[in-house]
Give the backbone structure.
Amino acid sequence: MSPTITLQQRMAMHNANRLKIGLFGANCSSGRAVTLVPERWSGAWPDNLRLARMADDAGLDFMLPIARWKGYGGDTDYQGATLETLTWATGLLAATKRLTVFGTVHAPLFHPIIAAKQIVTADHVGQGRFGLNIVIGWNEDEFDMFGATTRDQETRYAHGQEWIDAVKRIWSDEEDFDIDGEFFHFKKVRGKPKPYGGSRPLIMNAGASPVGHAYAMRNCDAYFTQVDRDSVEKSAAIVQKAKDDARALGRALDVYGVGVVTLKSTQKKADEYYRHCVIDHADWNAVDLILAKKKISPQTVGAEQHHKQRMGYAQGMGGLAIVGDPDRVAQILINLASAGLRGIGISFVNYLDELPYFLDEILPRLERAGLRERRPQD
Ligand SMILES: Cc1cc2nc3c(=O)[nH]c(=O)nc-3n(C[C@H](O)[C@H](O)[C@H](O)COP(=O)(O)O)c2cc1C
């Protein structure tokens, strides 16, 4: 018999850290930095494995991959080589002890009965440490590759609702049930074993449109959203609104942000490296292809907004730029925690090269601020 694990323990990622810190995007070549610099991230398995073990030993909380089926092109074919996330997560869960590892599932592409079982398998390998990132939206050309039916936003999210309802039912104690919905027609469905420890896996979502936000409020435990670059008050308002929206549905919700970290011993060095990677040596051809895919051009959004978006996408496909010396980087994280964020998924240009300095300099500062426990000792 496996020990009982509650959903609250899963949401706490099995520890008492008040600010959860995870690594975002390491399963993709170039990670989240659209850059030409030669030290950019490989995304290869040996590097992922070393990174996960380093993160696990240091007591970081999670790893969150990106499900990408086709690179963006440009000079580096940005995110052109990616490890499939459920198999990646299962491998990393087998090689670690504490980390929560997410798998990212595009609901329109995965049959829910197969996905439910793949997730349960990963969850057993990780003894309750698997998390599901459910993605409903898509890049059109990726889905064309699959011959997947194109649906409008509303219908996509309606399909996503039936999908997650089916998966949760398969994980429950119900057996031999029929589903006769708008999208799925299944007979005598059963799935065994159940998820590890008597509770279902943690579910995250990052729906940003009104229908996506509503979906997240109804279904997820961890909501990833954009916080304000400059104002703690504005970030706090964003976090509070999401929590209130969930509470109105009788649900508890943790809110997470996304950050792109450039940490050096001085502010000047950090500013210079940031400029070097994501301005002087950005893969601008890839950036322009990403923007074109999202129909962001001077014609559609105006010249000023286009320029802003171009800069934002070069530095990490959106997300908060956290650039500074250790005191400044730690202070930004402390401010995000005080705005109510439960955690943050961060990325680096080269995760393995840059993480040790982050662990040595930032974790002790967050411990002193009461936001994190001491690093594990074993
Ligand atoms: C932290 C985070 C992780 C995401 N992961 C993926 C992903 O792996 N694959 C993907 O196609 N979209 C991913 N997305 C996109 C969201 O799932 C979502 O589609 C997007 O924020 C737009 O919202 P909408 O679908 O409501 O328009 C991610 C977004 C965020 C902020």
In short: The mean pLDDT is 95. The pocket of flavin mononucleotide is lined by residues 66-67, 104, 133, 135-138, 206-209, 212, 224, 258, 345 (CB under 6 Å).
